[in-house]
Amino acid sequence: MEVRPKRLNEMWLFEEQTHNMKLGLRITQVLRNIKTQYQDLLVVDTPEYGKVMVLDGAIQVTERDEFCYHEMMAHLALCSHPNPERVLIVGGGDGGTLREVLRHDSVKEAFLVDIDQEVIRAARDFFPTLSCAMDDPRARVLPMDALKFIEDNRESFDVVIVDSTDPVEFAAGLFEAPFYANVHRSLKEDGFIVCQTESPFSDPHVVAGAIQDLRKVFPVVKLAVGFMPTYPTGFWTYGIGTKGLDPAEVRRPAPEGTRYYSHEIHRAAFVLPPFLKSMIG
Amino acid sequence: MEVRPKRLNEMWLFEEQTHNMKLGLRITQVLRNIKTQYQDLLVVDTPEYGKVMVLDGAIQVTERDEFCYHEMMAHLALCSHPNPERVLIVGGGDGGTLREVLRHDSVKEAFLVDIDQEVIRAARDFFPTLSCAMDDPRARVLPMDALKFIEDNRESFDVVIVDSTDPVEFAAGLFEAPFYANVHRSLKEDGFIVCQTESPFSDPHVVAGAIQDLRKVFPVVKLAVGFMPTYPTGFWTYGIGTKGLDPAEVRRPAPEGTRYYSHEIHRAAFVLPPFLKSMIG
Lengths: 281, 281
Hints:
- Two copies of one chain form a homodimer.
- By secondary structure, chain A is of the alpha/beta class.
- Helix content of chain A is 27%, strand content 31%.
- Chain A has two domains: 12-62, Spermidine synthase, tetramerisation domain (Spermidine Synthase, Chain: A, domain 2, Roll), CATH 2.30.140.10; 66-280, Rossmann fold, CATH 3.40.50.
- Chain A has nine helices and 13 strands.
- The radius of gyration of chain A is 19 Å and the shape is globular.
- Chains A, B: Pathway: Amine and polyamine biosynthesis; spermidine biosynthesis; spermidine from putrescine: step 1/1.
- Chains A, B: Its EC number is 2.5.1.16.
- Chains A, B: Pfam families: Spermine_synt_N (PF17284), Spermine_synth (PF01564).
C-alpha cells in the first residue's frame, strides 16, 4: 500500500488585478455567492484580511485594511470643506465611507446611493463594523441609480464622494466628464467631489483620464495618494475637484480615533512622486 | 470528433507573500533557474513588470517598479547626510541601489558587498539598467560576507544601506541589534544607516522589531514609508538610524531625473499613519 503525506483541502480566491497579475487570498469559508441584478457578489472569510467582499471578481472591501481607503475617501474632503452638512456617497454600499462621513458632527444628512440592494444587504449581514452607520438617524440609504438621484438634486450637496467599482460596465460612466458635470450641478458653491481613481501602476490610463475629465468641469483639481494593501499594487489615488477651494488645505479638525488619516497625512497625500506628476500632466 | 476551444499554454509565477496570500505574475520566459550556494535564484520575463529576479521564492526586483524602492533606499540618506563620500551597500547585488548612490557627485567610493556572486552575475546578464553602475570607477563590487567586511572597516563609512532579502535564514541577523551595533562602529560621526524593514501589513513584527533594535544602538531612529507595487501589500518601510542628525531633514540637492524621489517626497515619507506610529511605539 502506497503511503502518501496527508494533504489539506485548500481554497483560494484569485483576483485578476490585470490580465497579467493576480492577488491570491486563502479562504476558510464562502459566506455568500450570488448573481445580483447587476453583478456577481461573493463574500468569503480569509485568515489574512478577515471577511472580504468581491464584486465581478474585484475585491471591494476587507475587514482588515478597509480603514486605509474609507478614511481617505471621507476625510480628505470633509476636513478641507469649511462646513460639510449634506454629503452624497455614490456607490459605497458596504457602508464604510458612510461610517467615516458620519464621524463629522457638522454632517446633518448623508445619502448613500448604491444601485445594488444586494451589496447593502451583504454589508448588513456580514460587515457590521462597516454597515453600522446605516442606522444613524442622519443616514439616508437609497438603493437606486445615482445618476438619476443627482439629476433630481441640484445645488444640494457640500460633498459628493464617488465610491464606485472599477470603471467597467455600469460603473464606466462614473469616471467621465458628463457625470462630473452632473455632480458639479448637484454641488453647492463650496462643493467638493472626491473620486477613487485607481492605481498608477495597474491602471495608469484611468488615473490620467479621470483627472483630465475632472479638469474639464472643476476649476481646481488635485490628486492625492494613499496605501491600500488589497487594491491592485497597493498604491491608490483619490481625485478631488472643487469650485475654488484648495483641497490640500485643512480647514476642520479630524475626527478622533482615526487609524490611517491625520492632518499630517492629509497634506502629505498631495505630494506626488515625479512620475505620477508627469502622468497626470 | 469533439471540438474544444483552443487553449493557450500559461505560465505563472506565484510568490507566497505570507502563508495566506500570493502575488501571481504571468510569465513569458524563464531566463535562469538555478540553486546558488546560498539560495534559489530565478529570473523570468513578465508582461506586467518586465524582467523579474526571485530569490528563495521572494520577488527582489522588477524592471518596471524597482525605481520606487532603489531611489528611496539611496536618496533618503544621501540627501540628508551633509557630505556622503564613502557608502556601503550590504546586499543589493542587483545593482539598483548602487546606481542611485553613484548619482551623487559627492560619493567617492561605493562598496556593494553581496554574499552571493550569482545574484551579481544575474544582474549583469539580465538587468543592465540596474547593474550598469557596477562599472563606474567609484564602485567596488565585493562578493563576500558583509558581516566580515564591516568588522574590518571601523569608522569608515558615511552611509550604510542594508539592502537585504527578507529576515530569514542567512539574512535574519541583518535585522537585529548586534548587526546594527557593528554597523554603528563602521560609521563615521555623521553616519547614517538605512534598512528596508518590510510591510506593516504583511510583516508588522519585522517593522516593529527592526525599529526597536535600531533604537538600542542609534540615538536617532525614524521610519519612512513608500509605495512599492511588487513587494507584499505595496506598502514598504525604511528604517533609518543616525548618530545625531535628523534624517527627515534635507541637506543636499536631489539628483536630477528621479522618478519617485524628490525633496517633497522625502519629507512626506516620514509622515506615518496613526496605526503605524502606534505599531513602532
